[in-house]
Each structure stands twice: as structure tokens, then as C-alpha cells.
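Consider this:
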Amino acid sequence: MGILKGKKAVIFGIANDKSIAAGIAEALHREGAELGLFYGIPQLEKRVQPIAEKYNAKICAEADLSIDADVEKAAALTKEVFGEVDIVIHSVAYAPREALKAPFSQTTRDAFKVALDISCYSFVSVAQHFSPMMKPGSSFLTLTYYGSQKVVPSYNVMGVAKAALEASVIYLADDLGSTKGIRVNAISAGPIKTLAASGVGNFNSLLRSFEVIAPSRKLVTQEEVGNVAAFLSSYLASAITGEVMYADSGFNVVSGSRDLLNIIEEAHHNSKK
């Protein structure tokens, strides 16, 4: 019997079978949870539908979390199908591509608003609309990244948005924990090649540097992040809330400075000459 047997879980942010959210869907399904899947734009339906069929998801629908009406519709649909929900996964982030290429000091007001709205406020909005149908012991979980704590080249405004998201986790944990007994946590995953990651400049350099610096000397997989999500969503993590749990092969405990990253990248470049 899986640790999530009989639980009902909703996942926001599945883009395709390579996304972190897909790895989480796999783990939650394996552990016995019933799933509801939401994707952000209509073009993703053909990629997400096969995932929904594979895991026998009860919901597979579009929900743009930057639109209040879409969040309300997603909540209404979830209540109609499930009645109550035990687990809500938020794996949604976005910043305009130009904001990830130009220096952070050149971030425009509009780009800043978009990044903070979609990458951070959307989690708050989901918590507002879904917490009324969640009972004590239920769990919210979001995805963040180390760029919230340290400068990561080309991550720019997304790092600021993730920092705001992590602050939101602790305030939501206190708010929803004290009033409803709901836990709120985040996973800080190592870099994984996803559709969202393609917008970050020099991402391949980040991956190569990560393998050299991380204590485990290996990249993180979506399946590994999914396993951490299943744990945090289960009764096994009943004493954990307001936390950012790192699933990054230990990268966050090592001093990985910009200079070191540049040295590694230069060495890689020279080796190809």
C-alpha cells in the first residue's frame, strides 16, 4: 500500500513528460493518490493528455494561474470531481525571456510584475481558492530553486521571484497551519532540463558546473524530485511545514561561486579546441 493511498492530489504546471510536475505526478500516482492535472495554455493539452491517461487522472484541464477566473474555475472543477483535496502541487514559474538575458539591473517594471505574479502570487492565489476544500493534515507544495539564495548567472528576476515565493511559503505555513492545520512546503530542486529551463541563458553550462560541484557529482532527475514531493505530501512529513527542502545532490551546501563556475566553463571550452 502506498503512502498516499486514498489521497486526492491536484498538480498545476505540467507541460510535458519531461517536466518536474510530471515526475511528481508519477510518484504521487505510484504511492496511491488520485490525480487532477492542470496545464497553463491550450497548446499543452496534446502533451499533457497522454500523461493524464497514463495515470488515470480524474481531471485534465487548462488553468492560467495569472487569471483569477481560471483559478476559480479550477477550484470549482476540483470540488465537483473530488469534493475534498489532500495535496496541491504548484509547479508554475515564468519570466519574459528578455528579462533572463539582460542584466538584472535592466529588468523592466512589466517584466518584474509578470515574474512575481506568475511565479509567486499564483501560489498564494491557489492557496486562497483550494484551502477551503482541504482538511487538517493536507499539504501545499511549490517548487523553487537555489537562485533565490545565491546569484546564479542569467537567472536574474526569476531569482527574486523565487525568493518571494519562499517567503510566501513561511507566511502561508503559519496562516494555514494555525487556522486549518494545513502544511505548506517547497522543494528546491537542482537544475533539470525542462521546457521552462530552456529560457535561462547558459543553462547547459549550469548543468555541467552542477555535476562538478555537487557532492553527489550527478544531476538530479525529475523522478527524484517526485519522490521528495511524495514524502512531503504524506503523513511521514506531518511535522514538516514552512520548509524549503533541497533536492539538489547537495549542491546548496558547497561554495559554488561565480568565479568557479566561470573557471569550469572556460576549462570546458578550452578542452574542445
